[in-house]
Amino acid sequence: MHTPCHLKLHRKMKLLLAVIVLINSSSVFAEPDVSAILAASDQARGGALPGIVWEIKLISRDGAKVEEPQRLAIKAINQSSVATTLEPIRFKGARLLQLDHAMWLTKPGLSKPIPISARQRMSGQASNGDIAATNYAADYVANISSTAMLDGELCYVLELTAKTKRSTYDRIRYWVSVKRGVGINAEFYSLSGKLLKSARFSYDNVIRYEGKIIPFISKMTITDALINAETTMEFSDVKVQKLSASEFDLGQLQ
Amino acid sequence: MRRFVPVLSLCASVAMAQESNTDVTGTLYAYANTTMPRADSVLNPGNRVALLTQEGVTLEERGNIKIETALSRFTARPIIALANTNDGTGAQQQHSIYMSQWQLQTHASDGITIALGREVLNWGAGQFRSPSSPFYFDNGRSNPMRELSGVDDIRSVWTLDMQHTFTLAYIVDSAQSQSQFQPDPWRRSWLVKYDQRGEDWLLGGIVAKPSTLPAFLGGHGQITLSDAFMLYGETGSSSQPIALITSNNVISAFSYQMPPPRRATTLLGLAYTVMDGDTLSAEYVHDNRGYTAAQEHSYFQQAALQPSIALALAPPLLGRDYLNLVWQSNILETSGNWRLMAAHNLTDGSNQFTCYGEKSITPLFSLFVLGLRNSGTAQQEFASLFSSSITLGVKVAIP
User: Which domain holds residue B20?
Assistant: First the structure.
């Protein structure tokens, strides 16, 4: 039997419960700023900085066959990068210049740079678009499709759609850690929706920029979805450094 | 080169005095070559004019030196070659030491670099020829394995931003003094070049002023049509120091025109990349400096009387129209690559087929082969000097 006092208490509890639900639901369903999330995650992969240099050690496996390791020195500003081969020794000094979606290769002794097509850029397990700085915020339209737990970490699951046909991938599903603001998993899709590759990212490096300490990518493992192949890229000697536009001038690439 | 040695030494010392990164590597080449000169050659009777190497063994070291500081960078590519050759008159030993390229570059201010050195000034996407560069030199006629040497210049490049670049250069010597008959037109010349780039296109304009000839005007461009297709072109208009005038009178000697009127050369190309990264390219070249079919016929008739002059003063391309097809394996492949080329002279019908293949055996050691086969008669351009040539060799990377 409910006394008036009990009824009053019951109403108060219902009200309190409603407020709690309201607060919780607003925190879950309020639309986070997807552009800010993507820009922050890009910065941890070299994007939106005045210039960055790093080294990549790249090891590929195709089935049971382990390819020859490569070591590259990268200089990058947003959509532009120069990758200089350090190893294997026989390719030392070969340079790959990427400016937006155009690319050229030059090697010591070559009379002039050779243009590289988008199809060649996509060749190899780690497409040459993967070794440059990431600027998904500029290249893709992003939407948050959901949140999900990945390796015990709450993530925004972003759906990225290429703004132009020139982007390295047509569509990307990207898991960005809510707490750390870095992308920890990605799936790369073709225009037809076929899964091409997936990638996992680790962030054991740090960079200092504008007084902030920013986690920076230390390892990227790319797994081919179509064949039994995998590429691991390890990032080291990362430094934020102002780079002149002349570093990315095709005429001075030799 | 000698005039730059003190500057070179000083700059290298300054660079080394600062905190610098020094890197010295190289590649050792060892290769054997055999060439079959035409027994019935009109331009090169008995191989007495061109003195083509019929058999040769070469050991060559191509070095790469780089010293880099925060403000400047010094690079050099010294070549040391020892060759044992035979041009049909007996074995000869030759050695050469030269700097194919070197450069000292410094950042004068943000976006402006000043460079001094010897560099290959080539640009554009053309493969068969590069008509937009007045300094283009085809080494395939003399020694396809020889590395191109650059021109000695002082250059300033103003990179306004990632899309616009402006270059001003003074050419001290272009090293194109090909013969006693042909002076170097580009010695002490000025070059102005402007490049602009969009997201999927590139355009460049070139003006070069030799000291004694009218200005060279050139342009190059490329546009990416899709993931697979790229369209490109190059053009150049200039006046050479001297041109051979052919005559229908086959027993008369050549006459000359100094300088001849301005002529243009244009290349148009289309490249298609297949899914695995191999690229197929087709290029068409129209060269107004070349001869018509009738003029080319007269040229060979008169060359029988004056083969030395005919060879030395021939236009860079004898004919007017050419088709060049290239099938290139994925250039980004690190284990090896190959290239097949077929050039067709549409004016006289001769052909040149070239193949190049390279395969890495170990991380430091690669094998390579270069083959050339010319088809046509002794009075057709591509087959006028030799019928075939093959080079087999090894490359060893020096860490």
Answer: 5-398
